[in-house]
């Protein structure tokens, strides 16, 4: 696994893949990534786009494999860890998702996505008190207005809202 800077034409292939992804053409997006130089296919940025393609395809097993490569290639980037937790979450393996991501919060205490996702995991597993606590942490760490707005419409947090819980 490598962390490196992509050069032309690989940057164009990654951009093309992102464009196809936005259009919902997942096979063309993957085909575009297949054009990336062999020695650059495991770069973090390429893996990130590949993860998002497979995420949209709901191919969770492949998402898990890719997220582990992301963690291995650059463990100091929180996104690989978040993607791994989310892959488990999408497979409804809520406790595994929580167990994978919760320890990472100490490594990246200023990344609002980690406590936010942990709130979602706990909410979906039925632990609404823990979900509320993690959401409050996300609000403190991040842009509270943006996090509140996102949380208010997030279906993963609906069980929390149904109890009448309000976030300060």
Structure summary:
The protein is an all-alpha fold.
Could you explain how this protein is built, in words?
By secondary structure, the protein is mostly helical. It has two domains: 1-75, no CATH class; 98-168. It is 66% helix and 0% strand. It has helices at 10-23, 26-33, 44-56, 60-73, 78-90, 94-101, 113-125, 128-141, 144-152, 158-162. The longest helix has 14 residues, at 10-23. It is elongated and about 50 Å long. It starts with 9 loop residues before the first helix and ends in a 6-residue tail after the last helix.
Estimated structural class: mainly alpha
| Overall tally of domains | 2
Helical content stands at 55-70%
Question: What percent of residues are in strands?
Answer: under 5%
Low-confidence stretches: none
Reading the helices and strands in chain order gives: HHHHHHHHHH
Q: Quaternary state, please?
A: single chain
Main beta sheet, described?
none
User: What would you report as the Rg, rounded to the nearest angstrom?
Assistant: 17 Å
Which outline best applies?
elongated
Whole-Å distance between the termini? 42 Å
- Estimate the mean pLDDT confidence: 94
Work out the helix count. 10
Kindly state the number of beta strands.
Answer: 0
